[in-house]
Design a protein that fits this description.
single chain, alpha+beta, four-stranded antiparallel sheet
């Protein structure tokens, strides 16, 4: 149920490292918001929060403090997290004590190459901690998907 202060339900846990609150922005969970990125309907709130929590734990951020996360299988394979096969989520910086939210980044192949959605430093950090390989980092940097799976 939506919290009166937020445009969607507020999660009852905070991130382990920074204590960030999180809410599930309705527009990223409602298919009739066609202009807004959508999380996969099969992704639970717990899964979405886990992506955010891991991004915070491992400090996958840009210079503005935005966090970036990916969804991985138990054996480390990168999985889509958005309805358009998006593989990376962005969690825009939010000034405390406000709760954060996130959304899947648009498919990389549609992005203007001058404005890559994932900062190179965040991609390097993902590689450094073993979330992605050097080849996957290069693919994301080049505007290509790293997994090709049917949903």
């Amino acid at each position: 149920m939506p919290d009166e202060e937020y445009s969607g339900p507020l999660w009852d846990k905070t991130t382990c490292r920074s204590g960030h609150g999180y809410f599930f922005y309705d527009k990223h969970h409602t298919p009739n918001h066609v202009d807004d990125a959508q999380w996969l309907p099969s992704l639970s709130h717990a899964d979405e929060f886990a992506i955010f929590n891991q991004a915070d734990i491992h400090i996958i951020e840009d210079a503005k403090g935005n966090l970036f996360g990916i969804r991985r299988s138990p054996d480390g394979i990168v999985l889509p997290l958005g309805t358009e096969l998006q593989e990376v989520a962005e969690f825009p910086y939010t000034r405390p004590p406000r709760a954060w939210h996130g959304y899947p980044l648009r498919p990389l192949l549609r992005i203007d190459r001058k404005h890559l959605p994932v900062p190179r430093a965040a991609l390097r950090r993902m590689e450094e901690i073993g979330w992605i390989t050097a080849n996957q980092r290069r693919r994301l940097s080049g505007g290509k998907h790293i997994c090709v799976q049917e949903l």
